């Protein structure tokens, strides 16, 4: 008896649309990650590249090209903008330590337009999520004990920097892989 393997014609792929901060902010985030590790030891997301997630979605290899083209035509109409990193904060419920940022009107516009575009493209709400609080994750899933150890460091670590956002990055990972790779650069209107 001979068996024939069925090869799926489309596969699910994870997409992230993110703001990649400039080198200066990246350096600060990496420095904080190292300091946090010295205080509490090894923790989740200590090696993840600092970024601000705008949208996370699951697409299929069959529709990702068409959808990412639509996203680009959407973003090119939105002006480049400034963002400010304000300092360290904690999401208590998830034990997430993060660098807080402001939420400029242009970013709110991107969120609103993505919601409308994703609806138009018939991407089910169960397959994407949009930013609610822009931030740069330093560590997630931290225990209360770890957060208590970090309290003094968090209160003293000041960061007040502004940066210019002129494009967004599209990251992609095969659902089996989970390691995101840079795939697209979405230009904003200059």
What does this protein structure show overall?
By secondary structure, this protein is an alpha+beta fold. It is 31% helix and 34% strand. The chain contains four helices and nine strands. It has helices at residues 23-40, 64-75, 105-120, 144-156; strands spanning 12-19, 52-60, 81-91, 96-101, 128-130, 135-139, 158-165, 167-174, 181-187. The chain has a five-stranded antiparallel beta sheet with strand order 5-2-1-8-9, with helices on one face. Strands 6-4-3-7 form a four-stranded antiparallel beta sheet. A hairpin with a 4-residue loop joins strand 3 (81-91) and strand 4. Helix 2 packs antiparallel against helix 3. The longest helix has 18 residues, at 23-40. It starts with 11 loop residues before the first strand and ends with a strand.
Shape: globular
* Structural category: alpha+beta
DSSP helix fraction: 25-40%
Number of strands: 9
- The radius of gyration over CA amounts to 19 Å
Mean pLDDT, as a whole number?
91
Major sheet strand order: 5-2-1-8-9
Unreliable segments of 5+ consecutive residues = none
Order of helices and strands: EHEHEEHEEHEEE
Task: Tell me what portion of residues adopts beta-strand conformation.
Answer: 25-35%
Biggest sheet descriptor: 5 strands, antiparallel
Number of helical stretches of at least 4 residues = 4
User: What is the terminal-to-terminal distance?
Assistant: 63 Å
